[in-house]
Amino acid sequence: MDPGALEEVAHLTLLLGRLLLGSGADTAQVQDAMVRFAAGFGCEARLLVNYEGVLLTLVSDERFVTKIGPRLPTMNVNMAAVAALSRLVNEVECHRLSMLETRKELEEIEHQPTIYHRWIIVVALGLTAASLARLFGADWPAFWIAWLSGSLGTWLRQEFGRHGFNLFFIPFAAALASGVVGGLAVLSGISSTPSLCLVAPGMILMPGVPLVNGVHDIIRNHMSLGLDRLALGVVVTQAIAFGLFVATVLTGSKIPVDAPFKVLSVPEDALFSALAALGFLVLFNVPPQMAWAGLVCGVASHTTRTLCSNLGIDIVSGTLVGALVASFFAQRFARRFRAPAVAFAFPGVVAMIPGAYAFRAWIGCVQIMQGGKSAPLPVVTETLALIATCLLMVAAIAVGIAAPLIPIEKRATKG
């Protein structure tokens, strides 16, 4: 391969990796796609993937070129792009596309607009917030309040994102605005489950995909990027919790550290799990022809966890079982649609991300800090329990998604 062609392959390979990373793919998926893509053009790819970018060395016979990709401004989730890029890699691997055709398709995917209009996303995520509140036992007034405040928070997040505000200010401001609406509703006394008016709108802001991908990367020994993703997820979660805390100060409402968890009946849980998953499917830009499969994963995972709770199984173990079920269905759908399994698994499990537990743990930490040595022992123990529950639930989700794929990856490596 002549030097000019080698440079072009390197550029296209880096563009592919940047688009995958920016669309929510995990490190192993990015590396596998880039290696297969380069091999389709007769090159061997050697990679170093981290949060700052991708370092690539391409080797073809006795020639080689080393390039580093541009720094990613942010990491979003765009499952339509991930699916399109995966299909493109398959086409290149089978030598069905020329270099010029490949460049054209990559540029089209890069500039392709989202499938769903922004107002559809606002309404759908508001419904997700309301459904999550219902899954935690909210009454109907809290359901409607969560829908309103969740929609407001989503709209603000979109507006601030369009104007280039700081990555961590956006979730703080969205949580503050939705929390103020929820807090005012609490003061009005129209709901018998007032804390969920505050907490539920913040749950849809949780960085579920970075947290799960972070644990996923660490499981597969991609430590650097895994820790980076986890750090991003933790800081964003703190920004959301701080926004809700400021909302409680401004409105005088409270988020209790110790709150009972109400388990719904399985049919009711299935209904609201589907509605919760619907919002994330829209947010993650899952194509409509694949959306029903994501709904199945969402219902199967959360309803399985509820069934486990009804059988007396603890919530962490139930979460693990629910994630395993979602991963099982996602693999079947991935083969049917020829798309990555994560396109179905992530929207299905994000509703199980322990956002409410994380916010209550943060409030508990604030109370411990304010109380110092005189902090009540029940608050201390409950806060520690909430922190442990959050960590174990996120790990359970990541392990549940990853575990069924390990045998498949080993067979693919041997092949």
Overall description:
This protein is mainly alpha-helical. Helices cover 72% and strands 5% of the residues. The protein has helices at 3-22, 27-40, 79-93, 99-110, 118-135, 140-162, 169-188, 194-203, 208-219, 223-251, 266-283, 288-310, 315-337, 342-349, 355-371, 377-402, 405-414; strands at 44-50, 53-60, 63-68. Mean pLDDT is 88; it is low at 407-415.
Q: Detail the poorly predicted runs.
A: 407-415
Shape: elongated
**Major beta-sheet overview:** 3 strands, antiparallel
| Structural class by sheet pairing and helices | mainly alpha
Quote the average pLDDT: 88
Q: Tell me the radius of gyration.
A: 22 Å
| Pattern of helices and strands | HHEEEHHHHHHHHHHHHHHH
Relative helix content: over 70%
Instruction: Please state how the strands of the largest beta sheet are arranged side by side.
Output: 1-2-3
N/C terminus separation: 27 Å
Number of helices: 17
Number of strands: 3
Q: What's a quick, concise take on this entry?
A:
Helices cover 72% and strands 5% of the residues.
What key attributes describe this structure?
415 residues; mainly alpha; three-stranded antiparallel sheet; elongated
List the helices and strands and how they pair.
Layout (H helix, E strand, L loop, with lengths): L2 H20 L4 H14 L3 E7 L2 E8 L2 E6 L10 H15 L5 H12 L7 H18 L4 H23 L6 H20 L5 H10 L4 H12 L3 H29 L14 H18 L4 H23 L4 H23 L4 H8 L5 H17 L5 H26 L2 H10 L1
Antiparallel strand pairs: 1-2, 2-3
Helix pairs in contact: 1-2, 1-4, 2-3, 3-4, 5-6, 5-8, 5-11, 6-7, 6-8, 7-8, 7-10, 9-10, 9-16, 10-15, 11-12, 12-13, 12-14, 13-14, 13-16, 15-16
